[in-house]
Write a structure and sequence with these properties.
Helix content: 25-40%
Order of helices and strands: EEHHEEEHEHEEHEHEHHEEHE
Structural class: alpha+beta
Low-confidence stretches: 1-8, 176-185
Number of helices: 9
Mean pLDDT: 85
Radius of gyration: 25 Å
Strand content: 15-25%
Length: about 325
């Protein structure tokens, strides 16, 4: 019998994933086989802009075909298939063969933003652990916050430097092989809540009233859900942050309501003496929640705030 460690990746059933996007299309994520080499080459021929993904694909067609075939023949490769057409490619580019490699990931521009890169990265890292790699390195544009969030989720950490191109690396614990398949950790959800959000008063007949949040806060406490969530401290937005979305005249109009018991900004938007401060608290807390998700401190967040944003201009 063949030792499982000696099996080719394509024959190992652990190295195959399925992904369904938001439109219901199904993708197969698996190690590359020779029969798909031409489809990989076609994907790179159609990929735009050229030389934008870690210098790939080269603009020169002869050089492009030679380089891609060398990667496919000699290195660890994973592809994403949709109806037998390759729409994504992920590979380990050896720096020290079998020990230290660079992560290459390319998704065709028509198939980006639907989770393919995430699943390919997960599978390739499982293969890297299986093959006893010790370290994976990559570079990513500092502005590519979506990719950075995904890489951090898998344990990549920034190296020194704050350049336009950021370097990240992952030290692999080979004993963890397969853990992503066998047992996925619970999502780390952040929550914003603060009793001061109840101080936005809208009158006894307005449907947007403090009781809306009071009911949710009570439900969370009664079911002890707070212990399963990551609290995000509420904070006031700075004036500079608010000015990114609203005109000075609009901000002045809202700030003029401070201290007034009741004012109607329009027939459906009511303020009370603390509403202005509550609104700044709501805006700042949402900004803080988004920052924590972007920085991968948490996976997602829910902000239990008032007043509702749809009442802002």
């Amino acid at each position: 019998m063949t030792d499982p460690v000696e099996q080719t990746d394509a024959k190992n059933p652990a190295f195959k994933r399925s992904h369904v996007d938001k439109n219901g299309l199904t993708y197969t994520i698996c190690p590359v086989e020779e029969k798909y080499f031409d489809s990989v080459l076609r994907m790179y021929d159609l990929f735009e802009p050229k030389e934008s993904a870690q210098g790939l694909p080269p603009k020169d067609p002869v050089r492009r075909e030679k380089l891609i075939l060398n990667i496919l023949n000699d290195l660890v490769n994973v592809i994403a298939l949709q109806n037998e057409n390759v729409v994504g490619h992920c590979a380990l580019l050896d720096i020290q063969p079998g020990i230290f490699a660079e992560l290459l990931i390319v998704v065709h521009q028509d198939w980006q933003g639907i989770g393919i890169g995430n699943v390919m990265t997960s599978l390739l890292l499982d293969i890297a652990r299986f093959k006893k790699y010790k370290k994976i390195w990559l570079s990513v544009e500092a502005s590519n916050l979506r990719a950075i969030h995904i890489y951090k989720k898998y344990g990549f950490k920034f190296k020194e430097g704050l350049d336009f191109e950021r370097e990240m690396e992952l030290l692999l614990n080979n004993d963890d092989f397969g853990s992503d398949v066998l047992e996925r950790p619970l999502r780390n959800t952040g929550i914003v809540r603060d009793p001061f959000f109840l101080e936005h008063k809208t009158g006894i007949h307005h449907p947007e009233c403090p009781q809306r949040l009071e009911t949710i806060y009570t439900m969370i406490d009664r079911n002890n859900l707070i212990n399963k969530l990551s609290p995000i401290p509420a904070r006031l937005a700075t004036l500079e942050e608010v000015e990114l979305c609203h005109s000075p005249d609009y901000i002045d109009r809202v700030m003029d309501t401070a201290g007034e018991e009741l004012r109607y900004l329009d027939p459906d938007t009511v303020t009370s003496e603390d509403s202005c401060k509550v609104a700044f608290l709501a805006a700042g807390s949402c900004i803080e929640a988004v920052k924590r998700v972007v920085n991968a401190d948490i996976d997602n967040a829910f902000a239990l705030i008032r007043p509702p944003g749809h009442h802002a201009e």
